[in-house]
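Input.
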Amino acid sequence: MGPMRWFMTADTAEFLSVTGEFLRAEAARNSVMLTVTADLMAGGPGADPAGMLFGWRRPAGGPPQAAFMHTPGYPIVLSAMSVAAAADLAPELIAAGRRVSAVNAAQEAADAFTAAWRDRTGEAATVHRRMRLFRLGRLAPPVPGPDGRDRAAAATDRDLLAGWWEAFALETGDGPGRDHHADVDKRLGYGGITLWEAGGVPVSVAALTRAVGAMARIGPVYTPPARRGHGYAGAVTAAVSQAALDAGVRAVVLYTDLANPTSNALYERLGYRAVEDRVVVSFAPPVTLHP
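Output.
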């Protein structure tokens, strides 16, 4: 086999035809790439592939050994890969004229990509978030549970949910400026949003991606500040986890922010176990001062 090379495409189907088996072999770790591409292939609301870029690294004639996905406006997502692969990717993207605002990867790959990107662009790099991937072991719903019940979200909840998506983005530091209705519509389209109601009023939400290769990812989970402290987030997460299991999902996963020990402890109590840590590093153009 020849030397390792990066290949790139804007075609979701081509990307999956080459990397699908590679990604599904570690479905939990590759959940973001698998679920985003599943949405793109399904079409419908919120599945606009404009500007997407995918890539894989392999020797000539050999199977892929690394992959990436980049959605404009979001961090580039890297699969597990060697330091050399991550370092080689940055100049390939620069040569292709690709603007990358952040990278989402395991620590060593993120460090290698960041160093190569910074060396060639002069951009500053800042750790935006440290995350932990959890996978459900044996589900342990909260006992006793809070008042209320779970229900599937409906089209009549659309505006409420878009507002909660926006509040979640602001609270987690992802910033304003996106219209979240399309993402809400996409999730509603396949029944991927569960609400917890207390007194007939929605008080918490948990969303679920499409299942891909018997894997699905929970997120976001959000409770408005005034409703916190009653166990609603744990209850709705347990409800959506059980629904995923009932639908035949074998790997139920979610990401947490390592800076939030409350949520990490909550998911561990529900039966989630740590799989791997990842880091998001953001880039900013160098500042030019006036003389």
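The chain has a mean pLDDT of 93.
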